[in-house]
Each structure stands twice: as C-alpha cells, then as structure tokens.
Amino acid sequence: MRRYHCPSCGAEIWFHNTACLSCGTGLAFLTGRGFGPLGTGGTSACANRAVIGCNWAATGPGGLCLSCAQSTVIPDLSVPGNGRRWARIERDKRALIRMLDALGLPLRDAAGAPAPVFELRGDPIGPAPGPKVITGHAHGTITLNIAEADDAERERIRAEMGEPYRTLAGHLRHEVAHHYWDVLVASDPGALDRLRPIFGDERADYGAALERHYREGPPPGWEATHVTAYATSHPWEDFADTWAHLFNILDSMETALAYELLHDDGLQGLEIAALAALPVGRLAERWIALSVALNAVNEAMGHGSFNPFVLRPAVLEKLEAVRRLLPVAN
Ligand SMILES: [Zn+2]
Ligand SMILES: [Zn+2]
Ligand SMILES: [Zn+2]
Description:
Blueprint: E1 4-5, E2 12-13, E3 27-30, E4 34-37, H1 49-52, E5 71-73, H2 82-102, E6 117-121, E7 136-138, E8 141-145, H3 151-161, H4 168-186, H5 189-199, H6 206-216, H7 235-258, H8 272-276, H9 280-300, H10 313-323
Helix pairs in contact: 2-4, 4-7, 7-10
Bound molecules: zinc ion (ZN) (3 copies).
C-alpha cells in the first residue's frame, strides 16, 4: 500500500479513513485518481458508506463504488455480527481492488459487467442447517465463507489445517488468481504452453487431486518446489498460491518503500505497478532481507513470523512466470 494525504490539509490519511483525522474533510477514493474531498468534482459517497464505512466514491448503478458493486451477494444482516464481518471483508477487498486496478488487471468481463464478482455467504443456521459454505472460485464468481472474517474462527481453522499463514487478504488474493487464470491463461494457448512446464498439467483430475492431498498430505521435500504445502495439490492451486504470494511481495514492498524501510537506489519511490514491471529476481534479494528483518521485529513484539515462507529457486521461477502475465509487466 502506498501512503495518501488529505486533499484539503495535506495530513497523512489511511487508506480506510472516511474523513481526515486532522481537518475533518470527508474523503472519497477513486481508482486512478486517489482521494478527493467528498462532494466536490461530482463525487458522491458509495451507498454502503453509512453501513460498512466504505470510503470510495459512487461510480455505478445503485450508487455503489467499484468495489462494492462487485459483491453480488452480501451477508444476511439479520444475523448478529454479520454487519461487522461484511465491513471487515469489504475493507480488505477495497485494498485488493486498488491493487488489481493499479496492476492493469481487468475488472470487467467482455460484456462490460463486473468481473470477478464476490458472494459473501455465511453458513446456514437454524434447526436443519444445509451444507456449509465452501470458499472457492467458479466461472468468475468468488464465494467467501464470511466466518473467515472472525479472527478466532480463522485462527482455529489455521491451526487445525497446520497452516503457517491464513488471512482474509490471502484468501482474496488466492481466489482472484483462479479467476485471472481463466482470463489470462486458459484462453491463451501460448500462455498454457509456457505455464504447463512450470506448474504442471492442469488437465489432471482436480477433485481426485484434492482428495489425494487431504488424504496423504504434500510429498516429502515439497518446500524445494512449492510456496505452500497446499500448492502441491494441483497445478491450479500452485498457480493461485504463487499468485497470492507475488501479491504479498508487491504490496509489502510498496509499503516498505513508502515508509523508507528499504534502501535500494534503484527502487526508491516506486509504486506497485513499477515494482511489478521489474523481474522477481531483481526484487527477491531485497524482499528476503526485509522479511528476515521484519520477522525479527515481529518476534520482538511477541508475534509470530511476519513472513513464514521460504523462496527456493524453483519458487522464484514460478513467481516470475506469474508476474509476466501482469499487464504492467509487458
Ligand atoms: Zn485534512
Ligand atoms: Zn463501496
Ligand atoms: Zn484455490
């Protein structure tokens, strides 16, 4: 994330602020333009502003912003806590949409409709609850189980699954990867030819692959070739976890540069699109040094690792293959 300043008084503002904390000016964010004072230049507030604290400007039908317009199913607000869960998810989703837009990735389909779209669903409750909601992607629709917005529940699942890292941002980054595989790879024989030798043949039976993964776990030595254990389950999951990891790197490095935590003359002042235009090999050394330092700082505060992932050469090659798909890389 980059840093933003109040359009009225110049004080620093945070990406999720609805008003400047110094001068009180109401803020409205537009992709490609940044923050402006609410109500000027024709900007009006997203219709969800009062409900979930969305601080983006209305741009579409129904008075919704670009990000909220992509949520085609929202949680049942008659269930206690769902308003909070929805707000939490949309907060991370706005940061994701900012990043997708900055990287030049399409946010509409060929017919001009929002894509991907998000269905934010809670598990059914009541005397005869139906099947649980599975987080996943199908044909441009991302379903997210809103229980992931509860820190305690997400941490319980993380521990149960033996994962080193589980975040809402990570879920969103992983699931949009499946959508952009369809958009950027599946329909392009040249891209498929380039990626199959790196990630494997995605025509392998997906259901059987996941079943095997949950039965047997990852193969021994997986760390040499995959960014996560789950990435070993199927080439689609390898691609999605690698994509999510590239997003972690780009967002974190943009943030570190904005706060002058990274000292590299060639990188100073770069924002995310310019970082993504550089080969992963150019970023990796700085990224690893930053991760080591922030892991130590996190430990000093009594937290776990900032970044529990290890990047071996084969994983760097995969990250570079994903990066080359981004419009800003070409
Ligand atoms: Zn201000
Ligand atoms: Zn909104
Ligand atoms: Zn997946």
